[in-house]
């Protein structure tokens, strides 16, 4: 073991919750694994086609927690995400539920691209892999349609297309 | 320093180029699995960016369909090439507007 204060990053205890991503003469920056997990979880949810995150039981418990007033919602961003973070690199595993009717390959490609971009940009860690597991698909229910404002009656596929296209063409404030 | 063009911008620009082609009424998400490019916060329907280029699904309102498809291919390929993307473009004519068919039978 090296003496404390040598700044040798490789000597830091394993299995800790935080990881060093940068060290300078004046000190080190530590980014916790949960931070990486949260960024990845939020990034994945940005992609349309992702309905929910988390596998089976964890997802249901998470949904319950979200309903209970005062329940813990802070952890929910990282639900369905597990990360292994090294000194400079991170590997991310995601559990997704996708919408029925959208290509799972399209969704996972978009999720992977966005998660890698966001995590690398925000943390400076290099993301070596994003493994995506699709646990379930969600079929649109009447409740889903109502919660979207009840505008479209699904009269025809084409009018729906135009509606959605219209939505997508609106300029988005960033 | 490399230039990075966001996928959503490529998809939007390519969709716009396809729509500008005379004979293209609109893009279509297809009748089966949705044809779209997904990106954070939204999607562009009717165009799917792939590893080799793009698939564009159109609804035509003019004949000859092959000529329309060729123009769409050229227009979209130009956008992809300008963005530094591979530019093999598959065009699928999903539908023809009834008005165009009526015009054709009237002639």
Give the gist of this structure.
The complex is a heterodimer of chains A (about 170) and B (about 110). Chain A is of the alpha+beta class and about 170 residues long.
Structural write-up:
The complex is a heterodimer of chains A (174) and B (107). Chain A folds into two domains: 8-137, Cation efflux protein, cytoplasmic domain (Alpha-Beta Plaits); 139-169. Chain A has helices at 33-45, 56-67, 104-123, 142-147, 157-169, and strands spanning 18-24, 27-32, 50-53, 81-85, 89-99, 126-138. Chain A is elongated and about 60 Å long. The longest helix of chain A has 20 residues, at 104-123. The N and C termini of chain A lie far apart (49 Å). Chain A is built from five helices and six strands; from the N terminus they run ββαβαββαβαα. In chain A, strand 1 and strand 2 (27-32) form a beta hairpin. Chain B is built from three helices and six strands, in the order αβββββαβα. The A-B interface holds A 43, 46-49, 101-103, 106-107, 110, 113-114, 157-158, 161-162, 164-165, 167-168, 172 and B 7, 26-29, 31, 33-34, 36-46, 48, 59, 95.
SSE order and pairing:
The complex is a heterodimer of chains A (174) and B (107).
Chain A lengths: L17 E7 L2 E6 H13 L4 E4 L2 H12 L13 E5 L3 E11 L4 H20 L2 E13 L3 H6 L9 H13 L5
Parallel strand pairs in A: 5-6
Antiparallel strand pairs in A: 1-2, 3-5, 4-5
Helix pairs in contact in A: 1-3
Chain B lengths: L6 H13 L4 E4 L8 E4 L2 E4 L1 E3 L3 E8 L4 H18 L5 E9 L1 H9 L1
Parallel strand pairs in B: 5-6
Antiparallel strand pairs in B: 1-5, 2-3, 4-5
């Amino acid at each position: 073991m090296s003496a404390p204060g040598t700044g040798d990053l490789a000597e830091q205890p394993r299995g800790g919750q935080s990881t060093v991503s940068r060290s300078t003469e004046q000190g080190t920056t530590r980014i916790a694994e949960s931070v990486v997990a949260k960024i990845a979880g939020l990034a994945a949810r940005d992609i349309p086609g992702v309905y929910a995150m988390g596998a089976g039981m964890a997802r249901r418990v998470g949904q319950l927690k979200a309903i209970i007033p005062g329940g813990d919602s802070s952890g929910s961003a990282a639900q369905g995400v597990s990360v292994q973070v090294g000194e400079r690199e991170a590997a991310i595993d995601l559990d997704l539920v996708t919408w029925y009717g959208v290509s799972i390959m399209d969704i996972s490609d978009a999720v992977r691209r966005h998660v890698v971009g966001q995590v690398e940009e925000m943390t400076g860690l290099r993301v070596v892999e994003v493994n995506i597991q699709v646990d379930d698909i969600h079929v649109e229910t009447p409740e889903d349609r109502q919660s979207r404002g009840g505008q479209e009656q699904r009269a025809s596929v084409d009018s729906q297309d135009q509606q959605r296209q219209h939505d997508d063409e609106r300029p988005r404030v960033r | 320093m490399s230039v990075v063009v966001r996928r959503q911008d490529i998809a939007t620009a390519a969709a716009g180029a396809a729509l500008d082609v005379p004979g293209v009424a609109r893009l279509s998400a297809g009748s089966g699995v949705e044809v779209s490019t997904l990106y954070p916060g939204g999607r562009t329907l009717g165009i799917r960016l792939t590893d080799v280029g793009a698939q564009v699904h159109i609804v035509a309102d003019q004949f000859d369909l092959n000529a329309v498809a060729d123009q769409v291919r050229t227009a979209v390929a130009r956008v992809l090439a300008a963005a530094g993307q591979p530019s093999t473009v598959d065009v699928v004519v999903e539908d023809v507007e009834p008005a165009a068919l009526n015009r054709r039978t009237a002639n």
